[in-house]
Amino acid sequence: MEQHKGARQYSHGEVYCNCCGELITNRERTNQHRDYLHVEKAWGYFSSKDLAGHSFNICENCYDRWLESFRIPVEEFPVDEIPNYSEDEIAQLNEAYAAEVCKG
Prior knowledge:
It comes from Cellulosilyticum lentocellum (strain ATCC 49066 / DSM 5427 / NCIMB 11756 / RHM5). Residues 17-38 form the C2H2-type domain. This is C2H2-type domain-containing protein. It is a single chain. The protein has helices at residues 60-68, 87-103, and strands at residues 14-16, 23-26, 36-42, 53-59. The chain is an alpha+beta fold. The chain has one domain. The strands form two sheets. A two-stranded antiparallel sheet has the order 1-2. A hairpin with a 6-residue loop joins strand 1 and strand 2 (23-26).
């Protein structure tokens, strides 16, 4: 995964949730990989944050809690493929998913 300045991401591929502080993913240990939302926003003129940039990561649990606070629900739609992952990342996700399914 790429390094995101300003988001809680540390060496060795570790990514942390900016909301709860929990480890989201560690590329060196595929069983610790979960999907997450990464946001980068460059604020423009006409805002109270003129020319500031914000970057953060949100784990799925915090994302779900965040969505529950919305007055207007988000639009949900089917996705045919995951375009943002490399072949290696997809393999790691599949391994982590298989390991999680086999636990139960």
